[in-house]
Amino acid sequence: GHGHASNDGTYPHCCEWKDNTHYLYANGTEVDQWHIWQTHDCAQNPVYPQGGTWLGSREGWCPGDLVKDHWVELTGAVSGSTATLDYGITPVPGSNLGMGNGNYVVNMDLFEYGAPTHALDAEITEVKRPNDQGYFSRDNPICSDALVVLRNAGGTALTSATLTYQVSGGQPQTYAWTGNLAHMEEAEVVLPIPDGTFWSGDGGNRFTVTVSGPNGGTDQHAANDSYTTRFELPVIYQPDIYLYYKTNNRPQENTYTIRNLWGDVVWSRSNLPANTTY
User: Fold this and answer.
1) 153 pLDDT band (50/70/90 cuts)?
2) Which domains does the chain have, with CATH numbers?
3) Is the pLDDT score of 57 beyond 80?
4) Stretch 34-55: mean pLDDT, rounded?
5) d(Cα 96, Cα 150) in Å, to the nearest integer?
6) Helix (H, G, I), strand (E, B) or coil at 7
7) In sequence order, which ranges of 86-229 are alpha helices (DSSP H)?
8) Nearest to 89 by CA among 19, 10, 7
9) Which of 70, 148, 193, 199 has minimal CB crowding within 10 Å?
10) pLDDT of 179 above 90
């Protein structure tokens, strides 16, 4: 959403700052409705540090970041050789017609698929951590649990699988995943790291995860079972660490929290005065 349109200047303005509902119709029947409001996503933008409105919630995008896709399954909503598709947004309020001067930039594509090639086909589509790519810089480098994306590329619902993971030259670990993913659905999976020795390998700094045993059976397409990333190890500071924190003119909008490897809060501060260094 773009624009800051409003008759009376009352927030939210349309369409960059207004959380609207989006609809898709097939042959006149609503098949899906969804929201694209980015509540906290912009603060996690890999293009940082940024100030001003870059951190604020937005309608459907964050400056400098990728726009998220929204997939709608139409198989059960259409029949025959033709279909009429229509996209709609929350109507402009009658009490504030000026909002109609806002706009959306939308791209839509229609994909047609054949039947799934394999019944059992689990795949790893992404490793979010550890990963040294710039897009994942807000979560890396790490000394904690890994995070990967598991997808069901098979025609049978995926309810269980085994994930094996290790750094190059290191000791492998296994994780038994359970859930329920329909065809082409995906889920983020946290892979626990037992202790710091997990990262001790051959110095190549490569992380590999492999999925196997979908639903207790044999994966019928091995080519997408493994995913390897490069990573950087975090810097170790000894013996002490000193952090300096300076508040701005709106300190009520900011807090800071320090956690240890297990996620426990070891230090936190909030409600601090403006323009003060700690």
Assistant:
1) very high
2) 4-101 (2.60.120.230), 122-230 (2.60.40), 237-278 (no CATH)
3) yes
4) 84
5) 45
6) coil
7) none
8) 19
9) 70
10) yes
Q: Which of 82, 61, 68, 78 is nearest to 25 (CA)?
A: 78
Nearest to 230 by CA among 168, 188, 148: 168
| pLDDT-wise least confident of 15-24, 41-50, 156-165 | 41-50
**Three-state secondary structure call for residue 42:** helix
> Are the beta carbons of 191 and 175 closer than 8 angstroms?
yes
Q: Which amino acid is at 189?
A: V
Angle among Cα 126, 131, 133 to the nearest 5 degrees reads: 95
Q: Locate tokens 């001003």: which residue?
A: 52
Radius of gyration for the chain, computed over Cα atoms and rounded to the nearest angstrom:
23
Q: What are phi and psi of 228, to 5 degrees?
A: -125, 135
CA dihedral (51, 56, 59, 62) positive or negative: positive
Structural tokens at position 77: 């909503």
Alpha-carbon torsion (168, 170, 172, 178), positive or negative: negative
Residue 196 is predicted with a pLDDT of 87
User: Among residues 247, 228, 210, which one has the least CA distance to residue 122?
Assistant: 210
> Which carries the bigger pLDDT value, residue 4 or residue 30?
30
Q: What is the pLDDT of residues 93-115, one digit of tens each?
A: 888 888 889 999 999 999 988 89
